[in-house]
Amino acid sequence: MAIPKNRRAAFSLLEVLVAIAVLSLILALTLDMTSQASKVWRRGKSHEETFRAARDAFATITRELSQSTLNTYYDYFDASGRPAGDPSYDGNPTRYGRQSELRFACGPGLVPAQIGHAVFFQAPLGHSDSSSLTKLASLLNTRGYYVKFGNDTSGDFIGGKPAFLAAGHPRFRYRLLSIEQPSEKMSVYASPSNWITNALSNGSARVLAENVVAFAVRPMWPDGASTSYSYDSGVSWAGNSGNQPREMNQLPPRLEVILVVIDEATSARLQGNSSAAPDLGFEPNEVFHDPAEWDNDLKKVERGLQDGRIPYRVFRTTVPVGTSLWNSQT
């Protein structure tokens, strides 16, 4: 029997199955590419958000350090090193030297359980809790920066997890904290020996950036040589013992600052539900002890993070202290 001329050929069952298999493969590849692109986007977004916060924090720290001041002047000291303005001054001047009611300090051991270094100073930042003082842009404030490891329900800082969420898993992280005393609450004048303790007790600590795993500050002399990381402008002076200690009532002319931050996604993976500090490939409190090892310590930090495949960013700069009037002779 003759086949009608208008009859069209159809796909065989095998051809249909092959087409479905190819289409399924293309769909699977497309979904996989979409998933990979989504993961890359989320990872990039996590990196950018973490590093942007750290970059902004670093810019704030370096800007304010450049504004730090002591308002140094010259005054008489008695044989015990007490300035003329001290209530216990004996009235017998024996030396003439630098004096200041303000303070600058940096280095390890300034804050309980701090990680790495801390820095505390006064600067004309104009911050006040009083509405009648808010227009005075040059008011002095005590400011401090340091890193701590802990959870977001500890109460160590403002802006932690709200009380109604406290029952959930706490987030343990390294955090860069900022402490500030408003102008009307500055205690450095009334209690210069305890000014940092009072600032920590009465100031307001806030988180500037999370996942900051290293923070170091190195004071620099005019010739570029570093001393100990510990610097305290409030050191004492026996008035008959020659020149004043060179850091007494005097700001360092330059400060080198390093800040190292890792990304949030990696930090969350390393931390899990543990309350212990994660393994970063280096011990944060075992670096930046010797100023001569400044560059080597940074390499040690980077090598540890690289070996652990931990994404990180290093922020580093030298800050000229504009109000420093360095004098190595008196």
Automatic annotation (TrEMBL):
InterPro entries: N_methyl_site, Verru/Chthon_C. Pfam families: N_methyl. It comes from the Bacteria. This is Verru_Chthon cassette protein C. It comes from Terrimicrobium sacchariphilum. The lineage of its organism: Bacteria, Pseudomonadati, Verrucomicrobiota, Terrimicrobiia, Terrimicrobiales.
